[in-house]
Amino acid sequence: MLLYVVSAVYVSYLAVKGGLGVALWNALFWIILLFAAFNALSRSFQREDQGRQLYLHTLVHPRSVVMARTLYNAFTMVVLSLLSLLFYALFLGTAVLEGADLGQFLVAVVLGAIGFATVLTLIAAIAARAGNGLGLMAILGFPLVLPMLLAVMRASKLSLDGVAWSVTSTYFGGLLLLDVITVTLAWLLFPYLWRD
Amino acid sequence: MKHWWWKFMAVVLLLIASIAGLRVPLSPALVHVSPSRIMPGEVMIDVTGYNTRFADGMRTYLVNDNQYVCPMRVDVMDATHARIVAEVPAGMRASMTDIVVQGMTYPGAFFTESLGEGIESGSCAPTPPKLDLTGLGFTFPNRSILYESIRNLFFHVPMWFTMIALMGIAFWQSIKVLGNTDLERDRAARSAVQVGLLFCGLGLVTGAVWARATWGAFWTNDVKLNGAAVTALIYLAYLVLRGSIPDLYKRARLAAIYNIFAFVLLVLFLFVVPRLNEIDSLHPGNGGNSGFNDLDLDNRLRIVFYPAVAGWVLLGIWMVDLRTRTARLIEQMDR
């Protein structure tokens, strides 16, 4: 997965060559992260065959499974996004980060990564149950993460411009609320998904 | 009568809203004044009105910072065209001069040159401006930029109300499907989504036409337009998901789960995210644009707007009902 991100970053480095403005730098980063998220999370339910699912079903409650998956995916996404930020900054330059509020930007990255993970975990589960892999996941997931992507891009753009916490905190609050609601929905709905 | 009174009501409400919405005239207003710049000396001003009834002896004057310039002569060509000849004095105070004809004001009509300390106010000055509406009866507000397109309010806006209502019905039916996998409720949810998508499409089309007429482009990068596009994508994805699962009961359950998840997120996006960056929207009520409430004499619009909303929503529910029933019949015939 990390290899995927690194190659994407390297390709964009080769493609861009010159310097990037703040807006483009930000947009490109989030697009790379978005596709990385789709790739990483689509596999979270794919590797399970019928037998293994039944085995899990006898051991634990489905809610424990979905919570574990969400936590694991969120953790993966946070690590992945921070690492890709590192490589991204390495290849595409840190010029835009000079005027930025780095703390805010990191909060935006972490919240965005967690948001992608929570939304896409349930979508991955639905796609896997429908017996159709990455294609269906992209169709189902994309419109649902799009508004989140817009909000998080705007928040990170603002933090790159170095505005005050009081401005960005509404975005962060909104994203946090979104994460909480998504996790609650997954908690409520997942048991129905597993029933056969 | 017991079961179809609301369908009857939908038809009546829609007829009222459509006829009133298209037939009621706009209130008279000045739409064009030339030239756009005046300087001291004699000027000839051509005034064009809309739905006006210019007549000889009508009261006309220029206003500059509460000082009045009276015309020397007013030639009325016809009910909507007049030529006003006035002697403009030097030394007016404000850089913009308004013109008032028959109580109708065209604000900021002229850039004014040779400003000064003020002038002696003319004697034609004003009885409080009063619009002569006799014989016109009920009219809609005539706003610059909007003009006749204000009637689209009764078509464009109810489309979105209806879409949200139908998606809400689909959401409710999906919750019921999870309780016990009831194929009838699954059919109802699917029909509601399909009809809701139809209304989404109509809302986009009417909105695009309206945007072209008022903002100058069919599509703008606006929070509400993004919301509409996301909504369309979500529910198209819902239909794709349904299409990819052959088993009836599994399809009902998975589609219901996706629908519940999507609807909750969608409501959050449509009603919370626009609040975050409302400056971006050109829509009324956002980013300092005037909303419905400060349209002058908005009650004239409301009298038609509320029946239109109720009529469209009821029509949408009726369409969902019909679609559900045909879907059921088709499935029975296939069996």
Write the layout of secondary structure elements.
The complex is a heterodimer of chains A (196) and B (335).
Chain A (H helix, E strand, L loop, with lengths): L1 H15 L5 H20 L8 H10 L2 H31 L9 H28 L4 H27 L4 H30 L2
Helix pairs in contact in A: 1-2, 1-4, 2-4, 2-5, 2-6, 4-5, 4-7, 5-6, 5-7, 6-7
Chain B lengths: L4 H19 L5 E6 L2 E2 L2 E10 L9 E5 L2 E3 L1 E6 L4 E8 L7 E6 L2 E9 L40 H27 L3 H32 L8 H21 L4 H24 L1 H4 L22 H36 L1
Parallel strand pairs in B: 2-9
Antiparallel strand pairs in B: 1-3, 3-7, 4-5, 4-8, 6-7, 8-9
Could you provide a short overview of the structure?
Chain A is mainly α.
Structural features, described:
The complex is a heterodimer of chains A (196) and B (335). Chain A has 196 residues and is mostly helical. Chain A contains 7 helices and no strands. Chain A has one domain. Chain A has helices at residues 2-16, 22-41, 50-59, 62-92, 102-129, 134-160, 165-194. In chain A, 43% of the residues are buried. The model of chain A has no long low-confidence stretch (mean pLDDT 84). Chain B is α+β, with helices and mostly antiparallel strands and 335 residues long. Chain B has 2 domains: 32-112, Immunoglobulin-like; 147-334, no CATH class. Chain B is 49% helix and 16% strand. Chain B is built from 7 helices and 9 strands; from the N terminus they run αβββββββββαααααα. The two termini of chain B are 33 Å apart. Chains A and B meet through α5, α6 and α7 of A and α4 and α5 of B.
